[in-house]
Amino acid sequence: MNGKGSGNPRFWTVVGVCLMLWSLAHPALAQENRGKAQAENGATLQVGDFKLGPDDLLHIAVWKNENLSRDVPVRPDGMISMPLVNDVRAQGLTPMELREVLTRRFSEFIPNPEVSVIVKEIHSPKASVLGEVVHPGRYDIKGRTTVLDALALAGGLTEFASRSRIVVLRDGGTRVTRLRFNYDKALMDGETNFEVRPGDIILVR
User: Do residues 52 and 100 both lie within one domain?
Assistant: First the structure.
């Protein structure tokens, strides 16, 4: 080796020092770039394009300002409440989009605020299970949830349920799609046991 370029150990030492200095100078940005949030079950979630919604619990951190940093829930009206900026709409935004909004709002009161948004608990994605099930209601959809999973959350079918006439109502924006579901067939082959989406309504007749 000629002592130059990426093959030289000194080169990587210098790169490592530069990265360390950058992270020390921009701790909030370094945290944000990791693009992950801690969920209530201890698992790490990729926030990505996840849209915030009511009942989600967020941790808003403002670097070097503990008085502004706190855990806040997204209210049923889609808003969060923070010092100085009062109510801010969070519903429908990604964590990164909310971070940008809060940074702009806080910049009216403090110079160059470094803000991070961490999703601590996710409760907004829900599906409804109605009709001939033991416990009808709305249930949290966390991770991959199939129709059979959702029916199990509702306590299973009653003795009066028509196992072959279950319908999943799915809002497609301009129209509602009706997806038929056969309970016994899904138990046998597994292939017809499709995934539930947030907002779905599972109707058991």
Answer: yes
DSSP string, 13-51: HHHHHHHHHHHHH-HHHHHHHT-EEE-TTS-EEE-TTPP
- Read off the tokens for 69: 């940093």
> Same domain for 180 and 104?
no
Full strand arrangement of the beta sheet holding 70-73? 70-73, 57-62, 115-121
Residue 97 sits in the same domain as residue 154 = no
Number of domains in the chain: 3
Using a cut of 0.70, tell me whether the model's pTM lies above it: no
Summarised one tens digit per residue, pLDDT across range 80-125 is: 999 999 999 999 899 999 999 999 999 999 999 999 999 999 888 8
Got the DSSP string for 77-143? TSEEEETTTEEEE-TT--HHHHHHHHHHHHTTTSSS--EEEEEEE----EEEEEESBSS-EEEE--S
Instruction: Domain of residue 132: give its range.
Output: 126-204
Claim to verify: residue 150 and residue 96 sit in the same structural domain? no
How far apart CA 166 and CA 194 sit, in angstroms, is 13
